[in-house]
Every structure is written in structure tokens, then in C-alpha cells.
Design brief:
Blueprint: H1 14-33, E1 37-38, E2 44-46, H2 47-53, H3 59-64, E3 66-69, E4 75-78, H4 83-92, H5 95-98, E5 103-112, E6 124-133, H6 138-154, E7 161-166, H7 170-185, H8 193-201, H9 212-219, H10 230-245, E8 251-252, E9 263-271, E10 284-289, H11 292-295, E11 303-309, H12 310-319, E12 330-336, H13 341-354, E13 359-361, H14 368-377, E14 380-386, H15 388-393, E15 395-400, E16 406-410, H16 414-421, H17 424-433
Parallel strand pairs: 1-5, 7-8, 12-13, 12-14
Antiparallel strand pairs: 2-4, 3-4, 5-6, 6-11, 7-9, 9-10, 10-11, 14-15, 15-16
Helix pairs in contact: 1-6, 1-12, 6-10
The structure holds adenosine-5'-triphosphate and magnesium ion (MG).
């Protein structure tokens, strides 16, 4: 009996797996450029961590968490995002006391949200993100926004839409909340049942409602920017001015509030529309926070973070052909002809791998047709063919799969010939790191 995959989850293999790997590699390299270090936190956390950080009024906590009691009757939640776990880790490991500030971490891994599955929306998906904790300067916010912008450029995006807004400081938000309550109070009967609840716990959330009539209402609501305190306003203006100075285009969206309760000051989202007009929602998003660390038991330290959705990046990159460098490449496919040759092929493959060639070997008795089909499938450059004659003569047939030229070669000369064919040690190495010369970090001598 076949067993179905869980709704909203997906298997990632072949092209998609290579695409994910590539995306993660580029994102890690950019995080490295900005001097972030990796952190790995558990997938399961105490539920309380998310109710305290992501917030009781967020859709995530209200409707989307995978929460269960473990055998010891503890309420456990599969992480819906990674920021909270990173904060918990900073607090428990006292990183704020033992490390110089800021604490700069990047992470990558699966998240779980019980959402309605649709394009770009899964119940298990992967995020890559960074968090910088311990610096209040608005330049720290800018650094993370620019990291996000750079990451998308390195991934090959020509044009992305950066959407920003400021939620101000606590005082700004309290004033704004009052103004929103006054405004929405007159419309409460028209609002969806979710928004009626939002009205009481956090009226800012109403601005985020996707129900068309509520969205309409939100458009005419008071604007956060009119309620920013002078210092919050100055902070936001410094950020927009610096983005202008660096030629980074952005759009200010008054209704951008983001789905998590912990943000203050700048919040942002990166969007992208494919050439054919497909929009899978935000490909990356983040913001500044002031009381997240203290909320989970740490000191009052500000931070800023961004998280990208790997599935959404992959979807739009695939659509716009930005993943073309990720196909499989095999240097050599070793083909045994006949049962007896399998053992020879096996041992030859091991020798070649020990010499740093990427090798696939056939370990069964297959027809020529099947062998060449497989060679094509693994995108091999060369085939080494071994049959009874070759074994008897201590030879191998070497065939260039692009030119179709082939020669017999004494086994003793194989490695030196391969070295020549793959064009010196340097080229061989080059072939293995998959980088163009100018961007390769493998330090080959020019
Ligand atoms: P949305 O408004 O689309 O629900 P969000 O604000 O809930 O997004 P965040 O919590 O900011 O998303 O997560 C950061 C990124 O993770 C998003 O920009 C998106 O790329 C990705 N992401 C979020 N939820 C999902 C999901 N269910 N499936 C796939 N990717 C997701
Ligand atoms: Mg969401």
C-alpha cells in the first residue's frame, strides 16, 4: 500500500535538491562576506518560546503552529521560524555575556506552519536567515538589508522590490494603536471574524488582513508614519536616505506590518515578479526588534534579522532561468562490459575517486544502449569501457562523450592521460569547484 506524503510537504530531489544546495551555498557565502557565523538550533522547542516571542496575536501562534504534548506531557512545538530559537540559544548559552557584541548568526533549516497549501506556501518549508544582536545603530539594520539585497544580486536577480515601513518605538506604536482603535471601532460590524479578534489583541494586525473588504478599510486607516515619535522618525529617515545614497530602490508601504509581534522600527520585505508575472509572495523578509531577547529572558538588547524562503527563491529562479549552473556534472562514467568486468570497473572507480575525479560506475551487466543512456543522464564527459579484451591486455577504452572519439590505452598510462585531458592539475581542480576563475575561492595559481 502506498503511503501518501503529508499535505503541504514535498520531497526535494534531483534538480530541485541541487537548486536548494546552490541557493544555500550562495546565501552562506554572502553571510560570510558580512561576517556571520552559523548557528544550528533544534527543530523542537517549548511552545512557550513562540507564544512569548512571535506573539499571541500573530497568525502563526493563533492558527499555524504544530504543537503536541510529548510523552512527558510537555507542550512542544515544531519551530514555525528560527529567530525565536536563536534568541533562546543566545540567552541560555549566555552568548551576550561571553561574546563581543554584536552576536551575528546565520541559520538554514526547515520550519513548520499549518497553513493552507498553495503556490509558494508549504506546511514544511526551509528558511535561510541571519540575526545580528547587540547593536542599536540604524546602520546595523541597513547592513542586514544590504546583505539581503546583495544575496539576491549574487543569486542573479536583476530587479527586486524592497518594501519597507517603520513600526517606530514603543511610544509610537501605543499612540498609533489608539488611533487605529478609534478608526476601526466605527467599522467593527463590517470586519471579518479574525479582525474582530485582532481589534482587541492587536489592531495593527487588521492592516495585514487579506479579506478584500478589510483591506479596503485598512487603506483609509491612519498611517503609522504620522504617529512616529521624532526620534523614531529620524531613525527611519536615516535609513531611507542611506538606501537612496547607495542607489537601492525601495517602496514605503504604510500597510506593511509583518506577521510577527516582535518587530519595532524598520521592517522590510523583498518581492519579485517573474518575467511572466508570477509572484509567490515575499521571497525574504525581516526587521528590527528591541525587546525580543528580553522577552525570552535575556537582557535588553536590540537586534535585526532577515529570513529568506528557499522554496520561494527556487520557484522564481527556476521560472526565470537563474539556476542554469546547477546541472549534474560527472567527469567519468566507468562501463563494464560483461559480468567479469564489474569488479574491475568497481576498483577502477575507486582509484579515480582517490584521484579527485567525479565518477559514476555501472555495477551491473547492462547493454551498450543502457550504458550510454546512463552516461547522458549523469552528464559524463568521458566514458571508460572495460570488457574481457581490455582485462586480458591490461587496457581500457577511453571515449570522449562529446566528440565521440575513442582510443585504447594501457591502464598504466590512464592517470597521466586523464590529467592531460582534464587539462593539468589546476583545470582538474577547477572543474571540481564549479566556479568561474574570477569568482573561485579555491586559490588555484593563475
Ligand atoms: P507570508 O506573508 O507570505 O505568509 P510571512 O510574513 O508569514 O509570509 P515570514 O514569517 O517573514 O513570512 O518568513 C520569511 C520568509 O519565509 C517569507 O518571506 C517566505 O519567503 C518564507 N515563507 C513563509 N511562510 C512560508 C510557507 N508557508 N511556505 C514557504 N515559504 C514560506
Ligand atoms: Mg505567513
Amino acid at each position: 500500500m502506498e503511503i501518501n506524503i503529508v499535505k503541504g510537504t514535498h520531497d526535494v530531489f534531483d534538480d530541485e535538491a541541487r537548486g536548494f544546495d546552490y541557493i544555500e551555498m550562495v546565501l552562506k557565502a554572502v553571510a560570510d562576506l558580512y561576517s556571520f557565523n552559523q548557528i544550528r538550533t533544534p527543530i523542537i522547542e517549548h511552545t512557550e518560546l513562540f507564544t512569548r516571542s512571535v506573539g499571541e496575536s500573530s497568525d502563526i501562534v493563533r492558527k499555524e503552529m504544530y504543537t503536541f504534548l510529548d510523552k512527558g506531557d510537555r507542550s512542544i512545538t515544531l519551530r514555525p521560524e528560527l529567530t525565536a530559537g536563536v534568541m533562546r540559544s543566545i540567552v541560555l548559552n549566555k552568548l551576550y555575556a561571553t561574546k563581543d557584541l554584536p552576536i551575528k548568526n546565520y541559520y538554514v533549516g526547515p520550519c513548520f506552519r499549518y497553513e493552507r497549501p498553495q503556490a509558494g506556501r508549504y506546511r514544511q518549508f526551509n528558511q535561510f536567515g541571519v540575526e545580528s544582536v547587540g547593536v542599536t545603530s540604524p546602520f546595523q539594520d541597513l547592513e542586514v538589508i544590504m546583505l539581503g539585497y546583495d544575496a539576491l544580486r549574487y543569486l542573479g536577480f536583476k530587479k527586486v522590490n524592497l518594501v519597507i515601513n517603520s513600526l517606530g518605538d514603543k511610544e509610537s506604536r501605543e499612540n498609533y494603536r489608539e488611533a487605529l482603535k478609534n478608526y476601526f471601532a466605527a467599522h467593527i460590524d463590517e470586519m471579518c471574524s479574525d479582525c474582530k479578534e485582532r481589534f482587541n489583541i492587536n489592531p495593527l494586525r487588521i492592516l495585514d488582513c487579506k479579506v478584500p473588504s478589510d483591506h479596503e478599510l485598512a487603506l483609509n486607516a491612519p498611517k503609522m508614519r504620522d504617529y512616529l515619535t521624532p526620534s523614531a522618525k529620524a531613525r527611519f529617515e536615516l535609513i531611507t536616505k542611506t538606501l537612496d545614497d547607495y542607489g537601492i530602490p525601495y517602496e514605503i508601504d504604510d500597510s506593511l506590518v509583518r506577521g510577527l509581534d516582535y518587530y519595532s522600527h524598520i521592517i522590510f520585505e523583498f518581492h519579485y515578479q517573474t518575467e511572466s508575472g508570477v509572484d509567490v509572495g515575499a521571497i525574504g523578509a525581516g526587521g528590527h526588534y528591541d525587546s525580543l531577547l528580553s522577552e525570552v529572558g535575556g537582557p535588553e538588547l536590540s537586534g535585526v534579522g532577515i529570513a529568506f524562503g528557499i522554496e520561494r527563491l527556487y520557484a522564481v529562479m527556476k521560472e526565470d532561468n537563474l539556476l542554469k549552473d546547477t546541472e549534474v556534472k560527472t567527469d567519468i562514467y566507468v562501463m563494464p562490459i560483461g559480468e567479469k568486468a564489474i569488479e574491475h570497473a568497481f576498483s577502477l572507480a575507486q582509484v579515480l575517486r582517490a584521484n579527485a575525479y567525479r565518477v559514476e560506475v555501472c555495477l551491473e551487466n547492462k547493454s551498450f544502449k543502457q550504458l550510454f543512456k546512463r552516461a547522458e543522464h549523469v552528464n559524463a564527459q568521458l566514458a571508460l569501457i572495460i570488457g574481457d579484451n581490455e582485462i586480458a591486455n591490461n587496457e581500457v577504452v577511453i571515449k570522449d562523450l562529446h566528440t565521440q572519439k575513442q582510443v585504447n590505452l594501457p591502464l598504466d598510462n590512464l592517470l597521466s592521460t586523464l590529467d592531460m585531458m582534464f587539462n593539468t592539475e589546476e583545470e582538474k581542480h577547477h572543474g571540481h569547484c564549479d566556479h568561474e576563475h574570477h569568482e573561485c575561492s579555491c586559490h588555484h595559481e593563475e
